[in-house]
Amino acid sequence: MTRLGSWIEPHAEGIYVPAADIWIDPSTPKPRALVTHGHADHARGGHGAVWATPETLAIMEVRYGPQPGNPVAYGERLTLGNIDVSFAPAGHVLGSAQIVLDHAGERAVVSGDYKRRPDPTCAPFEPVPCDIFITEATFGLPVFRHPETHDEIDKLLAALHANPDRCVLVGAYALGKAQRVIAELRALGHADPIYIHGALQTLCSLYAAHGVELGELRAATDADKAAMRGAIVIAPPSALNDRWSRRLPDPITAMASGWMRVRQRAVQQGVELPLILSDHADWDELTRTLVEVAPSEVWVTHGREDALVHWCQMHQIKARALDLAGYDDEES
Q: What start-end ranges are recorded for coiled-coil regions in this protein (predicted)?
């Protein structure tokens, strides 16, 4: 009897599908690649041909230059070799997709990175029933249960209003997190100008070009200290303790990340205001997703694989951990 998923080959550098002669999120350049989303640990430059959503291709072009791209819209179906391929929203960042593979009566879903919380900057995750579900496990431990998004944004606004002579400097990754923080602030009625680090400008403009309303953004570099008192400033995490931040008026240092659940990380990074805001599914969302897609097998990638594999086994779901190289938690 043929093993389930025998037509899919996990390798250290990515997942290879021989019947289509194509790789999924390879960490090294390949002749043909399917890419789930634009973060650098999934989308690399140098491939011979790339299939991805139009938004992901646009992000890759910003990061790597012109791409040999083939745009695939959500729900569109194509055939590569003997494999039927379609993309479904992953809810991670703009353009993020789950890659759905149908072959020989089996369906495998490569989720990439995903989250289940509402996000005004990207299409929501869509559960796709399948035989094999390949899932991340970035926050694959029961201790990781993310709070409600609006509660964290309320904390940010409360700190701002309580300190009118200071600014709040929020560390947020350039792709996805920064735009989400801005959009969530707008959704709660914060209409004031938001100041941003220059490294965020290109991707914020790209989001706006794809219909994501971010309101008035101003370059922090061009503003004087007085203008930024009582304002929110958003910058890459690397700028929080950099010389660049010295131009700001007595900043309250904040960081938007799922890792802010770990108090020691906040202390180590000198974060005064930890904001637990993640673009990855937490433990409850990971396990709920597995119940919803009801796979016969679960393959677990980068993260806390052991706990999620154990949960699957306790619920009579066959599971295995994949040893994929090149993935990290920088965009959490």
A: none
